[in-house]
Design goal:
It is built from 15 helices and 13 strands. Strands 5, 6, 7, 8, 9, 10, 11, 12 and 13 form a 9-stranded mixed β-sheet that branches. Strands 2-3-1-4 form a 4-stranded antiparallel β-sheet. The longest helix is centred in the first third of the chain and has 21 residues.
C-alpha cells in the first residue's frame, strides 16, 4: 500500500470507530481486526502502519471528530492529494479535527490534583506491565527470563516495552505471569489480604485483581462475583493456568443481594473495583473519551453507589472494604468516597499504606503523569 492508500484505509476504519463510539458499539481494536480480516491481501507492515494511523488520530482528538477524513486531515494533510487509492483532494472548506486531550465538558470533572501539565500523559502510549505470580515464582527469576525492568511501585511487577509480545511465552502459558498494569497491582496490594481470610471481589470481571489476591495469599478463600456471565467465564481458565483457587459466583441483576445472602457479615475483605468512566485508562483506550457522556457518567456514579451499598452488609466487624476506580475524575474518586462515609457511619477510612500516588480526600490518586501507572483512585474503609 502507498502512504496515501494507508491513509484512506485509516479513514474507513475511523468512520467505523466514530460511529461505534457514538452508538456504544465494538471497540476500535475489534474494528481494526475485522477490517483486515476482510482484506487479507494487506501485508503485516501495512496493517501495522494503518493501525498506528488510526490510534494516532484517536489520541490526537479529545472530542469525537465528525468523520474519519477530519481525523486524518489533522495527521496527514499532505496525503490528501488525489493520488490513486488515496483520499480525495481536500475541499477548501474542509476542516481537520481539533487537537485536544480532555473533552471540554469533562475538564471540570478531573481531580484538582491532575493539573494541565499532566494531561498529555493521560493519552501517551502505555508500557506493557506484567504481574509475577509470586505464589509460584519470584520477580527476580522472571526478570532474568523476560528482561525488562522491575516496576517502581509494585513489588510484583515487571515492565516491558509497549510492543512486546508475551501471549505465547512459556512463562505466560504456564501461569507464571499475567498482564496487569502496575496501578491495578497496587489496588490488590492495598487489600492486604492474608491467608485464611474470606475475600469477595464484588465486580471481578475477568478476574485480574482476584488472581493477584490469590497469588498474594494462596490460603485465602476468594469469591469472585459479577453480573456479566461472559466476563466472569474468562476467569476460571486463567485461574487454572495460574494454579489459583478462586470460586466464581454469577449474580443476577438487580437481585444481587439474594445471591450474596449466605455470606453476609462474614467477609474479612470486600473489594469494590467499581464500573467507572475508565478515564484512568485513556492511554490504553483513548477512544473512551469519545464514548463518555454526561449522562453516562451520571449512570456510572449511581452504579458505584449501589455496588458500595451491596458491599456493606458483607463486611464483618473489623473487616475491610477497598474501593477502587480506574478514573481520575473527582466525582468517581474522592467525591464517591466522601459520600460513602457520609452515608455509612459504621465505617471509617484508614490509610491505604501506599507511598505511591497523592492523598486525595480519604484515598490515594495514582496518575500516569505522576506515577507512571494507569489512573486509579483507591480508598480503604474498616467496619466498626
Amino acid at each position: 500500500m502507498t502512504p496515501a492508500a494507508r491513509v484512506q484505509a485509516a479513514i474507513e476504519i475511523l468512520d467505523e470507530v466514530i460511529a461505534s463510539a457514538r452508538d456504544d458499539g465494538p471497540p476500535a481494536d475489534a474494528l481494526v481486526t475485522a477490517y483486515f480480516k476482510a482484506r487479507r491481501y494487506a501485508g503485516s507492515k501495512d496493517r501495522r502502519a494503518v493501525r498506528e494511523l488510526v490510534f494516532g488520530a484517536i489520541r490526537h482528538s479529545a472530542e469525537r471528530p465528525v468523520s474519519g477524513r477530519a481525523a486524518m486531515l489533522a495527521l496527514a494533510p499532505e496525503l490528501f492529494d488525489g493520488s490513486p487509492h488515496g483520499p480525495a483532494l481536500r475541499r477548501e472548506d474542509e476542516q481537520p479535527a481539533q487537537a485536544g486531550i480532555v473533552p471540554e465538558w469533562l475538564a471540570a470533572e478531573l481531580s484538582p490534583l491532575v493539573a494541565p501539565n499532566e494531561w498529555p500523559a493521560l493519552v501517551e502510549r502505555a508500557p506493557l506491565d506484567l504481574r509475577v505470580n509470586i505464589a509460584r515464582t519470584s520477580r527476580d527469576e522472571m526478570l532474568s527470563e523476560l528482561g525488562g525492568e522491575p516496576t517502581r511501585l509494585s513489588p510484583w511487577g515487571l515492565r516491558l516495552p509497549f510492543d512486546s509480545r508475551i501471549s505465547d511465552h512459556p512463562a505466560y502459558v504456564s501461569g507464571l505471569i499475567e498482564v496487569q498494569d502496575e496501578g491495578s497491582q497496587l489496588v490488590a496490594l492495598v487489600c492486604a489480604v492474608r491467608g485464611g481470610e474470606r475475600v469477595v471481589d464484588l465486580c471481578a470481571g475477568a478476574g485480574g485483581k482476584a488472581l493477584a489476591l490469590a497469588a498474594a495469599a494462596p490460603q485465602a478463600e476468594i469469591i469472585a462475583c459479577d453480573t456479566n456471565r461472559q466476563r466472569l467465564s474468562r476467569l476460571q481458565p486463567r485461574a487454572e493456568r495460574a494454579g489459583a483457587r478462586i470460586a466464581t459466583r454469577l449474580l443476577d441483576a438487580p437481585r444481587e443481594r439474594e445471591g450474596l445472602a449466605d455470606i453476609e457479615g462474614s467477609c474479612d475483605l470486600v473489594l469494590v473495583d467499581a464500573p467507572c468512566s475508565g478515564s484512568g485508562t485513556w492511554r490504553r483506550n483513548p477512544e473512551g473519551r469519545w464514548r463518555l457522556t454526561p449522562e453516562r457518567l451520571q449512570q456510572l456514579t449511581a452504579l458505584q453507589q449501589r455496588v458500595l451499598d451491596l458491599a456493606v452488609p458483607l463486611v464483618k466487624p473489623g473487616g475491610r472494604l477497598v474501593y477502587a476506580v480506574c478514573s481520575v475524575l473527582a466525582r468517581e474518586g474522592a467525591g464517591q468516597a466522601d459520600d460513602f462515609l457520609s452515608g455509612h457511619s459504621s465505617f471509617r477510612a484508614e490509610d491505604t499504606g501506599l507511598a505511591a500516588g497523592r492523598l486525595d480526600g480519604v484515598g490515594r490518586l495514582l496518575t500516569p503523569g505522576q506515577d507512571g501507572t494507569d489512573g486509579f483512585f483507591i480508598a480503604r474503609f474498616v467496619a466498626g
